[in-house]
Amino acid sequence: MIVADEAAMLAVGEALAKQLRPGDVVTLAGGLSAGKTTLVRGLLSGLDHRGEVPSPTFAIVQPYEMVEPPVWHVDLYRLEDPSELDELGLDEAADVGVLIVEWPERAGPHSWPEALALSIAVDEDGARRLTATVPAAWEGRWPLP
Ligand code: ADP
Ligand code: MG
């Protein structure tokens, strides 16, 4: 999917928000400034979150427990070793809500086999190219209806 500009990326996030169910994990791969956090901003806006959506690069985990379903926005950029994941409480979060994970590769290759795995690449003209690996749980939900 081609995502022409920031507004289009926000719209993808908003549309994705309508598909989320508790227990879902969405991983967002792509380099610095690919547009991962922009997609999450659209997603939270789609869940009627009003207010800031800071990049959780330093906090690693930013919870949004007042939206439905609750969302944990995770940025593993600064994770130094996959063993640090255990301390973040993500398994408990994924039981009741949705995990959205930037830099999932930092967690090792097999952390979320059931995740909707999105990847954002930057085209020569600056547009973003979004590709998805779609697990069984997401059939009928991605491509976005
Ligand atoms: P990341 O979280 O991947 O590091 P951000 O979402 O924080 O990236 O930043 C993406 C930057 O790229 C923003 O400044 C945004 O305005 C810009 N941008 C340009 N085109 C797009 C696009 N098609 N989709 C998303 N962001 C875009
Ligand atoms: Mg980011």
Helix content: 10-25%
Category by helix and strand content = alpha/beta
Strand order of the largest sheet: 1-7-6-2-5-4-3
Largest sheet: 7 strands, mixed
Number of strands: 7
Portion in strands: 15-25%
Looking at CATH, the homologous superfamily of the domain at 10-107 is P-loop containing nucleotide triphosphate hydrolases
Q: What order do the SSEs take from the amino end to the carboxyl end, as H and E?
A: EHEHEEHEEE
Inertia-based shape: globular
Q: Give the integer mean of the pLDDT values.
A: 96
CATH secondary-structure class of the domain at 10-107: Alpha Beta
* Ligand identities: adenosine-5'-diphosphate, magnesium ion
CATH architect. name of the domain at 10-107 = 3-Layer(aba) Sandwich
What separation lies between the terminal Cα atoms?
13 Å
Low-pLDDT sequence parts: none
Instruction: Report the CATH topology name of the domain at 10-107.
Output: Rossmann fold
By DSSP (H or I, 4+ residues per run), the number of helices equals: 3
